[in-house]
Amino acid sequence: MKGKKELFGTNGVRGVVGDSMGPELVLRIGQALGAMRPGTIAVGRDSRSSGAMLVHAMKAGLLASGCSVVDCGILPTPALQFIVRGRFAAGAMITASHNPPEYNGVKVIEADGTEMGDEEVIALEERLGSGSYSLADWRGIGDEEDGSGLVDRYIDGILAHFPPGAGRGMTVAVDPGAGAACRTTPRLLERMGATVHAINATFDGTFPNRLPEPTPAGLAPLAALVRETGAAFGVAHDGDADRAVFVDDRGRYVEENREFALIAHHVCRERTGVIVTPVSTSQLIEDVAAATGCTVRYTPVGSIYVARSMLDLIAHGTDVAFGGEGNGGLIYPDHQFCRDGGMTTAMMVALLARTGRPLSELIDALPPYHFISEKKKSSRIDEIVPAVVAAFPDHSADLTDGVRIAKEKTWALVRRSGTEPIVRVMVEAPDRAGAEAMRDAVLAVIRPFLD
Ligand code: MG
After folding, report:
1. CATH number, residue 18
2. Which end of the chain has fewer CB atoms < 10 Å from its terminal CB, N or C?
3. Which domain covers residue 381, as residue numbers?
């Protein structure tokens, strides 16, 4: 089908290695990317066991197309994005982010440091489909250079946003989960002046102690480390460290929408404008916007839509204060237009240093909300959307991604989920009874359209 991404999802190409993901596919992606973005391309990978194999395939494809490559080694996705911006023709990151160890994938980065957008990805896929690669002859094959030291630019780039010694006197527990952040977050915190205690802090592509997705259960050892060391907080990342999640000083997992709200409030004290976030984000962000004189702009679900929307707004003269998702993926417009787990960690240090209050207290001061998420089988989202709009005439309706209806502090979202014939229903309200009533009302409306 033309005009639709087939191979790439909202976060690049992903698959199980040895099944839908392997060196032949990555070689072809390298050849196609090289033909589209001639010049020097920076490559990097997360710590997965299949990473070396796939990065070699990527480099072979790029070199064959006449591009030169700079291999940055294992590093976070936002580090490669920072390195690419303004200095390379493109970037190619071998990563499957938070997916289990058997997965791997490719994320393509543009010269401005953002993930490749939908239209360009479709053009890339068309090249893959047609095999139009324009390979170089033997004289035109590119060179490879070692870029393993370039990660320092990323750490320096984050530090430049904070006064020297911003973390002095603070103890921080870190769990990079044996992923890419082993190389960056402990060092970043030490350079801020913090005392660092780390677990799972050496690369291991089998992820022996916890999966690349940070979960409350997986972070129990981090919580214990926080309590043992009296740390101000614990921080953990997914496999490629574009996300950061936190454990408070009492060892409690900080729900990611609350993390987003807390940091958004800190950022928006100093700058007003639009806060950009997907339609699935908590009402907490509306509360922050109201308290800081900002407004909220909703995007479809997917960090690339948040980043692109921020850039579009800025290009049209709108002030953008902040962006992010309710999963610990936060975007700082003064820094770069992608989720950045290292920057989020540094911002938490700065926030706690400014307030002088424990993280647990700050989190507990946020208003409580009750959230419900359900999946239902249906392929009739096109009929569901107008039915929901019609059934709630006194609610506002946002049709950015499915339908999001809202009234006062209660909202509901019904959207198509990924590639499966499933709709996801999300509801949030100030209390459980309100959320359940809203869920029941929405389900009653969509029931005729379920399989
Ligand atoms: Mg990630």
Report:
1. 3.40.120.10
2. N
3. 370-449
